[in-house]
TrEMBL record:
Keywords: Membrane, Transmembrane, Transmembrane helix. The keyword Transmembrane applies. This is Transporter. The chain crosses the membrane at residues 7-27, 33-55, 67-86.
């Protein structure tokens, strides 16, 4: 798989994980500053990922885009969202 697509796929997973936690907290406990910022941040990540995949702005990763760091972040965000569901 192309690293550029993998990077944006992992960023989408991070956005979904953070958005799930943010929106579930808003629905269960109401709106607060932290949950609102989580929801807005998740929407921003998902919007940027969708835009990049739709426009295909660049097929090469820049030196600041690290697959390894994003993969670790996606795993941690997914684990946090899973723990949020279970606990």
């Amino acid at each position: 798989m192309n690293q550029w697509y993998l990077y944006h796929l992992l960023m989408g997973i991070i956005g979904l994980s953070v958005g799930f936690v943010g929106f579930s907290e808003i629905l269960s406990q109401g709106i607060s500053l932290g949950t609102s910022l989580m929801a807005v941040g998740a929407l921003a990540i998902l919007s940027q990922t969708g835009y990049a995949l739709f426009i295909r702005e660049s097929s090469e990763l820049t030196e600041r885009q690290s697959i390894e760091i994003v993969a670790i972040g996606a795993i941690l965000c997914s684990a946090g969202a899973l723990l949020h569901i279970l606990v």
